[in-house]
Amino acid sequence: MSSASSVPQNPTTHNVAQILPKLNDPDSDIRYMTLNDLLMMLNNGSPTLISHDYTTCCKVVDGLLHTLADTHGDVQNMAIKCLGPFVIKAPENILCPTIEKVSNIKTEGSLDISIPALGLMRIVVALPHPVPGVAKSSKLNEAYGAVSKALIPRIVGRVVVPLKENKSHPAPPKGMLQEELETGNDSNTLDLLAEVARCFGPMLQEAEVQALEEITMKVLESDKCGTVMKKKAVAALSALAPYFSEGLLAHHVTNTIEKLRSPHLTSQQRRLYITVYGSLARSIPQKFGPYLKTLTPFVLAPLSDIELKQQEAVEAEADGERDTQLEEVREAGFIALENFLQACPSDMKPYKKDVLEAATRFLKYEPNVADDDDEDMEEEEAADDDFDLDEDFEEETGFEDEDDVSWKVRRCSAKALYALIGTLDPNDPALSGTIAPALIARFKEKEESVRSEIIATLAYLITKTGSIDARDTTSDSGHVIPPSRKRRRGFSESLGSDLQAQQALMNGYASPSTPPPTDTGTKGLAKINPDIVKGAAKLLKSSTPQTKEVVLSLLKDMVLAQRGGLSEHAGLVVDPVVDALTTSSGGGSNLAGNKLRVEALGLLRVVAEMHSSKVLEPHLARVVPALVAAAKDRYAKVSSEAFGTIECFIKALTPPRSAASNVKNGQYLTQLHQVVTDRVSASDTDTEVRQKAVQALGLLIGRTSGSAGQKLFGQDSRFAGQQLIADRLKNELTRLPCVRAVDTIAVLAQNKNDFKPEFVSNVALELAAQLRKASRGLRGASLSALRMLAVNEASRSCLDDQTIVQVVEMLIPLLQTEDLHMMSPALVVLAAFAKDKPSLVATPPVIQGVCGIVTSPISGAALEALITCVEAMGHAGAGKDLMKALLDVGVKGDTDVTGQVIGTLLVSGGDSVGVSLDAFVKELKSQSDESRKCLALSVLGEAGLRMGTNSPLKPDSFTAYFTDPSEKVKLAAAVALGRAGAGNVKAYLPKTLDAMSQGGGYHLLHSVKELLQHSTAEDDIKPYTANLWSNIISSGQAEDNKVVGAECIGRLAIIDPQAYIPQLQSFLHDNNPAIRGMVISALRYVFSDTDASYNTNLQNTIVPMQEAMLADTDLDNQRLSLSTFNSALHNKPELILPNLATLLPYAMAATVPRPELIREVSMGPFKHKIDDGLEIRKSAFETLYALLESPASRQRLDIVAFYDRIVAGVGDEHEIKILCCLVLSKLLVIAPAESTRRMDSLSQQFRAVLAFKPKENAVKQELEKLQEQAKAVVKVSVGFNKVLGSEGEGGGRAWRDYFEWVKKEFPVYIKQAQEEEARDR
């Protein structure tokens, strides 16, 4: 017997020929092992192993044909496996004979009649396939030639494409599918046909596609062929459809319409044609969509009320006997409608009402149950006994419940409603007026799968209608402080706002309440809320664990969508939820019980987050013990979820949300504290559970701070908890959650007595020690906690001098501009310490660090933190050494940053810094060096801003330098004038306006910009706004002044909206494109720099202004308008989203390349194409990316049209390719169904990007771009393959072939993408 060890590593033709005689051995085991050896030789051998030995090839073919007809199935299967590697290595001229002989195998002695088709499928898959964007090779042409000459004629039974040679060839034998049509036996030939379409579809000629379509339709129409064959025929048509010509598709549709109109049409034929329509809609939505106007009525016909009444009449005449085939037609009809709505939503708009009527009609279709639409659920339950009396009737008619397939119709009608909801606007009255009541009425559905589908559809409706106002309520451990739009003045204000922002974010001072409905969608949701709650409560009491799970998820979605909504019905929900949490899984598996409990805990969590404490108090006696029991659960997922819920209840039980006088709340907190500390301390606690418990403990200690909190929770328990956190802070597994717990405690502490002695000092040192660890997440969290300990005076007062010294030393390495995210909080900590202990902070290393920072051009939050720190030192009288060091740095640093720091220190430190304002005035007058002048001007400007009306500086102190020869000095003087003017508007602004009227627009615009940006005296500015407006409009039209002028106009509109928003709107229609562009840019500042209180000034004008902007014909203005539209989407969604259908088409149209904007220029001997529309398209695609950020905007998108533009963008220029890959990563999660349908088309686009070869003389920059886009494409491909491709759900042969090619050609990029994904997790 052969064995694997007998196969040589580099086999030759002689080795192959040597084993072939064994294929005729009488022992089946030897035949099998010989085939196995042959397979290994063919796989291991060189590409030319047998390509030059025709004799051996013929013998291999004979041997394989002999074993394919073997009587043993294992031998046949091994022979089939050998066919693929053989045809790859065999010479091309042997391919046609091999296909013919394999197709003519007679398997009389075998029970398996599918051997020929399976063998041919193996051959077709193994042959080279056409790839979009890749030139066709000679081997590919030979492979297609063999398929065209030998395989397709054998499938259809005739020569489809006549041979070019003028030779007479014998007619092919009866086709494989013709034989199946005669016998009705399935031999997998339809699977073979589908594989030919998938592998060689792009190369098939129209006659071949037509022949394959005709024979497939004959199978569909045949009476002999069974259901399985007809399902395969539908799949084969779906595979062929992408290669239908317009004429063939039109003929196919016309032919099927004629059949559907035939009076002799059977229910089975009708079902098949409708199924084909649904399949074609999914396969070729763009080509098939226009036909839906004609075809949809045929699909809706069996779902009409007319046919339903006709059926009832026929059944009455037949004594109740029903035609079950008609139910299958209806099932197919709803499946087709679902496909139509998902694949071609725009083409289905005229039929949405008809679909809605049909789906709601059959959602309640139960032929075996009397029509009781007018009765409620209680009456129906009371009538159950009466229904049982009908059992004898069923027996007499011979109809049993198990023969009832009407549940499939109901389930598919619910799915069709789901698809319909996806195409409707959230404010469509049909959602809450028609669809929701129909779904709620079917909560009484007895079939489990139908009930689950109905509840899932209702949950989707709730999510869609509530998405406009719903916000993400999940707490985030990384607390974000909103950036200030104005320059902060004063140390206490700066640090106070920092702490207050954290407290507001973490604490939630206002007790939550359900916001009032604001539009049709939310009003409708509020209207159906009571019915949903009542129906859900009944299901929670009586249904199966699976149904309870989806009901809990439904209620959770409803609470999130309404941000509450259970205030009046909490009693109906909470008790059954607690029962679901505490009882066993009701006879189901432990897995089902655990999933149910996790859902129950998730619902309790959002109920606690979204409702006031008064709503929760009556139910705490039952809820809290249930939470304690769940927290002790051995299943980690349950206990982990329990601690997340416990955190929300801790917030609900403690001030300010709950009154401290409630004694029972203290008892509940004690119970929660006990289970939290037990799980933190227990040695057998799961790591994730312990981490969640630590966070809950930190929240409990923080929320019970102050005298009010201590009435609820004893001081001893709080101190014990703090000690436990301090101890666990030293453990690596719980260090990060302990750091966050300390952060929480520090933010919420109200006085020094809230801390255990030595606790603050110990944890401060431990936190400071973490700043040197490798983990960036741990370092960031530790620094955040340290910042809160320093900023809150309650905790800062607990720190002794030695601890502060040690912490300051550990912060010094962070005073570097290489990492601004770490530098800024470190400076805030130093500023807080400097307030009380300036001598401990103003050390030489700290001063050296500050001097190092000012050498870099920093801005934003980093600059604010630096100025805050310096200001604190100045106020504390410790700025003398720092001033000396800064003056030594002088012009070696960034003059603007250094000047702002010195000016801040000069004002805050006063006489203690050893330098006066006059010294800088003299320096400015006496210096001729450009940099020193700029530095002096920056110092004086900052000093003027901070001194305000007390400043001795006059406008002339700065305007005198507008005539300096140096452009840098002029600009520095302009900026300094504006900053000083922000401190004393009445003295500076009139002089500035006088100067603007005499010229010097560029520099004075910068002065105005700085004044408007930094000044908080808006009342002082308003008298001058009219003059300012006219001067800015006239000066801002110059090319160099556009950007600054736009910002100034925007800030004026913010100061006096009633006067200038109408002006902006009118200027959008100005004939001068420069003025229109300046106004468009100005609106971007208006949108980004105003809060919700400003919206009343925009609500009537924002949409007309956006339309006017987006319709602008100037190219630069088109780009600016898209950028402004993006800003409006981000900052004013409540004003833009209701009108998205009006505005979005402009952005969608802008993503299409415009040939008229592509021009060719000569660069020496070369021609170079320049695309003037590229920047516009980039802005448009950025807008599309922004639309995916919020659920509210996502719900309003036509995902099919959206996806079309993104797929097209993958083939656009480099920057757009990268952006589209990012969008696709989001769409993979947001729209998995549509992503699945797009996988094959994406594989073509991706392959074209990856297969592009640069020219030999390509520059480095171009090569880097190609590498970047290749990495981006591979990364998104890995994501798609993991989510949709690995299970075989998404994509067809094209995607699988593409991804195999990527794995072979780009293994390094694949590995990098997988590593990045692992890091992100």
Structure in words:
- This protein is mainly α and 1321 residues long.
- The protein contains 71 helices and two strands.
- The chain has a two-stranded antiparallel ribbon.
- Strand 1 and strand 2 form a beta hairpin.
- Helix 23 packs parallel to helix 26.
- The model is unreliable at 372-400 and 468-493 (pLDDT under 50).
- One of its GO terms (biological process) is SCF complex assembly.
- This is TATA-binding protein interacting (TIP20) domain-containing protein.
- Residues 1135-1303 form the TATA-binding protein interacting (TIP20) domain.
Helical/strand content category: mainly alpha
Which residues form runs of ≥5 with pLDDT under 50?
Answer: 372-400, 468-493
Shape: globular
Q: What is the helical fraction, as a range of percent?
A: 55-70%
Strand arrangement across the biggest beta sheet: 1-2
Largest sheet descriptor: 2 strands, antiparallel
Output the radius of gyration.
38 Å
Give the amount of beta strand, in percent. under 5%
The pLDDT mean sits at 85
End-to-end separation: 51 Å
Number of E-state strands = 2
The number of distinct helices, counting runs of at least 4 residues, comes to 71
In brief:
Belongs to the CAND family. InterPro entries: ARM-like, ARM-type_fold, CAND1/CAND2, TATA-bd_TIP120. The chain has 1321 residues and is mainly α.
